[in-house]
Amino acid sequence: MIRPKVILSRAMEAGLVVVGLAVLWAGDPNDWLVVWDVLAAVYVVIWAVRLLRNRREDDPEEWLAEVQGNWAALLAIGLASAVGLVAVVSMIADVDEKFGAAAKAVSAVAALLAWFLLHLGFAEQYARTYYALLPDRTLAFPGSEQPNLLDFAYFAFTIGVSFAVSDVETHHRDIRVQVLVHSVLGFFYNAAVIGVAVGVVTGGR
Fold it and tell me: Is 97 exposed, middle or buried (0-12, 13-18, 19+ CB in 10 A)?
């Protein structure tokens, strides 16, 4: 049975996609981008609370049900993230006048939140894959016989910021495929976020 928290996550992801599309098509996208920022921030905060709550919990039964799903779940959060980032880039590229301070802040926050959403989605995907393929140890976390959500977040964000897997070893082709996709997407996301930062500083010109 699907848990209410999972349903809430999928609903929020759908909302992020819809609001992101509204940013792309609205005549005045600023208000819609604020809504997207708020919704994405709530999503990230909920995820962070869940992460902190389970940071010392080794029993996957305590938290794995909250990240249930498959590639479709990753696609949902990935789409929400991508639509948000594209909306920000499009808004900066099409702006006809210099950004005000508020618009700069909203755009910068949106780009960062989109970046966070991508890597949170992959953290959950790595967790799902790892426990779905047991008893094969697809990932080896030093000192963690039963890795928890914090371990998978560490793995995902290490790839996101450095394109490396640090001290974690990959032992399965399915995981390597995911790491490859994650690394390529992460490269383009990092480039886009830098582009947004430059656009914000220069007022979109």
Answer: exposed
Contacts 24+ apart (CB under 8 A), 197-201: 197/108, 197/111, 199/89, 199/92, 199/93, 199/107, 200/92, 200/99, 200/104, 200/107, 200/108
Report yes or no: 59 and 107 within 8 Å, Cβ to Cβ: no
Looking only at the bridges linking them, the beta strands covering 169-170 and 139-140 are antiparallel
pLDDT at 18: 92
The domain segmentation of the chain, as residue ranges, is 4-201
Distance CA 203, CA 150 (A): 37
Instruction: For residue 197, give both structure tokens.
Output: 């930062």
**Residues in a beta bridge with 169:** 140
The two structure tokens encoding residue 97: 């006048």
- Which residues 6+ apart lie within 8 Å of 116 measured at CB? 40, 44
Per the listing, tokens 């949170």 go with 120
Type of residue found at 66: E
Q: What is the pTM of this model?
A: 0.88
Which of 139, 131, 114 lies closest to 193, judged by CA?
114
CA count, 13 A, side-chain hemisphere, 17:
12
Scan for tokens 């049900």, then name that residue.
65
Contact (Cβ atoms closer than 8 angstroms) between residue 201 and residue 167: no
Tens of pLDDT, residue by residue over 92-114, are 776 555 556 677 788 889 999 99
Residue 186, both tokens: 């992460």
